[in-house]
Amino acid sequence: MSKSLRYLMLLLIFTPCTLGVFAQDISVSVDSVFQSFKKMPPAEKLYLHMDRDNYFTGGTIWFKGYLVTATGNLPAAMSNFIYVELFDQADSLICRKKIKKIDGVFSGNIKLAQDLPKGSYFMRAYTTWMLNAGLDYAFYKTIYIGDLQTHRTSSKMEVKEVENGSKSISVYFADKNGSPIRDTKVKCMLHMGNSKVEVLKRKTGEDGRINFEIDELGTNSANHFIDIDFEDSPIEYNTRLFLDKKEGAPDVQFFPEGGDLIDGVLNRVAFKAVGTDGYSKKVWGTVLNSKNDTVSSLATQHNGMGLFYIMPETGEEYHAEIKDDDGNTINVELPRHLAKGAVLSLVDRGKSLLVNVREQGLQTVGSYYLMAHAGENVIFVQKLNDKLYKIPKDVFPEGIVNFVLLNESKQVVSSRMIFIRKEATANLSVSPDKNNYKRRDKVSLDLSLQQKDTTMYSGSFSIAVTDDLVVDIDSLSNNIRSALLLTSDLKGYIEDPGFYFLNSADSTNFYLDLLLLTQGWKRFDVNELLQSGVPRAKYYLELGQTIAGKYEKMLLQREKKTEITALAVDPFITASTFTDENSNFIFDGLDFPDSTVFTIQSQRLTNIKQEPAGFIRIDKDTFPSFHHQKFIVEKKQGFTGKILQNATERVYYDGAGKMIVLDEIRVDATDKTKHELENKYGISSTVYNEDRLAALFPVSYPMNIVIRSLPGVSRIENNSVYLSRGTGPAEILVDGMEQTLDEISDLYSDNLDHIAVVSGASAAFYSRRGGSGGVIIISLKEGGQFEYDLKGVEKVMPLGYQNPVEFYVPKYEVDSVRMLKQPDMRSTVYWNPDMTVQSGADTSVSFYAADPSTTYTYIIEGVDNAGRVYRSVGKLRREDE
């Protein structure tokens, strides 16, 4: 073997004699920086195993959260709570759940409302500790929610291009029988992004359609959608329709291997082409110099990515002329190229990696160091003796490994990521007890971890079993292996991540390497880390629940510690604490589920009497903002074809009960009070009187939840409410007195006589500032009095954790139950988020088959105590022979 082609042996790297050879060896210093990570709680990553990808209104999303350490995927992450959120395409929050770790497991569900508009929705999940790495490393998933309720009003939008560049919109409305809905007033609120809202009013024609034109949407990232409501109609119908943005030229970016192009050296350059919708684009073209001579050609090879070679010349400039299938032609400048520099180049040789330092004008040997790390763990730091190394892959863990070229000042000169794929060592054996199952048969699966060594492994697992007739399994979507080993460490959207784990073919490995050449690892900045150390955490590790706030004393009160008490009735909770020197207080170590209402009260006592109470200010729950187009693209495909037909037939039976749909009955009587209020506030207002409030809020809810639920409220930021039709924050008037959200936090829904959301011209009549942001008018019940600063007491309902709900599984253990005529048409046949499987022992899970003849797909995922990731997909046959 030649001198320039040798094995880099880790045992030699870390021995004291090797470290002592070089007077300026920085390996000890680099290693000490990475050791600093061990003084902090480990960084975390999170994956949600969900029972399926597509749902329907009225259904339930079941999920289990796998929270592991960001390095090594160990189940040693310390957070005790995760947050799971559901957003629509307008980035509006639909639901937020806080999930508590119970017996080591995070599991929960989201019940979907019946009136959700069909379309793409987005799941996001994270811990507060994960936010220190940034929102890029939260868990994201696109799901589709279909409306299969055929008994309801439906709408369909058609969009056509008009010669002047605008769009012609036609919306068709049909009743439950599919007949057009005629002569009905429709209000359309067009949201064109950047707070621009236009209101149009139309009436459906004999064909059940309304028509209008809108300006060209452009290619910006704003959300464009239309809120539709029926007015003065016996049919209550509202929905939200989303508009596709204009297709433009693709965005093409170039990524030289190692970071820079070097003159006089053959450089590998990866590129990626992305369309305006966020999906990859197929492109091709040529690379030209300043004389327009062709020096290379390029063409996408997989998901908009490709690779070409170039040897830049000093003083020359290069650009690429690129075309796509839509007829677009763009010119893109290549990145700068350096007369002097050094870059890393890596090639996977099967069982080893070939590491090459390509340099020009520098003496890299003896002056530079090669470092490799996997997350927070340094694998080695070695001073360069040669420019070419062959490193055995078995010294690296599975997943992403980052190679970094450092100078003697510990500054990053070049870096290159590569994915280490291990042979399948984490194998889960699944053995069904039968080859075929009959109607309502008991299904038993034996699970065991295949043991290849003497190590005893134990893992936490979850299983979803779904009916292939109604649930389509996307083999290319994110799964536990692609998430924990790949996407959770990369910034930006990864298209079809499951593809890279379908097999270990050479072509798959090549495409995976293309992905790493074009997608950056930035969980932390290596250069900043080595120069400045581990950054201080901005977000806390959530081990328990807390309520915090501030006590503001009365003007004449003395400065002293004040006792603050907290009381909740259901569940019964009492707590006490004292203010600190800054009058702040905190209750920690609390344990409370969702919808728990606390009364926080100050206690200032003297020897003679209780002093006048001050004011309690509670810190509000805050959550990170959401903009889906930065992290994840929209999934257009929903229920189609035979699956749509089957799902529609079964929707009435899902949830172990059949829905009986009655004919609509028209009631001509009107709500006189509501009608009078609407006349008072104007036709552009939305009014809730006492009866409507009681129907919407059957139990008492605080005002922040009431206001978030009002139609027309688009968002709440910095204690201000913004309406869809407003151009600034809305004013809040309580019995004619302007208030902030904080100042009305101790009001509840049952205190209200009515509430009105007024926008447009009518808002100016009530506003003190012109009404451009709209006005929210709150009127209290007669005899009620609003204490604008209620002294010494505050009511608060912080976000609590979801009480666990068990997935319903029918048990056909006796003939009398098995022979019941009620159909069993479950689409998610079985869901179990809490299974423990150990090596050397079998774990059995059982459930009962449903009625239709079909096949089932089971997906079992899990992580063991050594950080090994498991995924098993299989089929079960259900036929009556």
Share of residues in helices: 10-25%
Distance between the termini: 66 Å
Question: How many DSSP helices?
Answer: 13
What overall form do the CA principal axes indicate?
Answer: globular
**Structural class, from helix and strand content?**
mainly beta
The strand line-up of the biggest sheet is 3-9-8-5-6
Biggest sheet architecture: 5 strands, mixed
| pLDDT < 50 stretches | 1-23, 606-611, 655-667, 785-790
Mean pLDDT rating: 85
Question: What oligomeric assembly is this protein in?
Answer: single chain
Instruction: Tell me the fraction of residues in β-strands, as a range.
Output: 35-45%
Number of strands: 53
As a whole number of angstroms, the C-alpha radius of gyration is 31 Å
What's the gist of this structure?
By secondary structure, the protein is mainly beta. Helices cover 10% and strands 39% of the residues.
How is the secondary structure organized here?
Layout: E1 6-7, H1 10-13, H2 16-19, H3 27-35, E2 44-50, E3 54-56, E4 60-69, E5 81-87, E6 93-100, E7 106-111, E8 119-126, E9 139-146, E10 154-161, E11 167-174, E12 185-191, E13 197-203, E14 209-214, E15 225-231, E16 238-242, E17 251-256, E18 261-262, E19 267-274, E20 283-289, E21 294-299, E22 305-310, E23 318-324, E24 329-333, E25 337-338, E26 341-348, E27 352-360, E28 369-374, E29 377-383, E30 388-392, E31 399-406, E32 412-420, E33 428-432, E34 442-449, E35 458-467, H4 480-485, H5 506-518, H6 526-532, E36 545-552, E37 563-568, E38 573-578, E39 584-590, E40 598-603, E41 615-618, H7 628-631, H8 641-650, H9 672-681, E42 686-689, H10 690-696, H11 703-708, E43 713-717, E44 720-723, E45 731-734, E46 737-739, E47 752-758, H12 761-766, E48 775-780, E49 793-796, H13 815-818, E50 828-838, E51 843-848, E52 854-864, E53 869-878
Parallel strand pairs: 1-30, 3-9, 18-25, 45-48
Antiparallel strand pairs: 2-4, 4-7, 5-6, 5-8, 8-9, 10-11, 11-14, 12-13, 12-15, 15-16, 17-19, 19-22, 20-21, 20-23, 23-24, 26-27, 27-30, 28-29, 28-31, 31-32, 33-34, 34-51, 35-50, 35-52, 36-39, 36-41, 37-38, 37-40, 40-49, 42-47, 43-44, 45-46, 47-48, 52-53
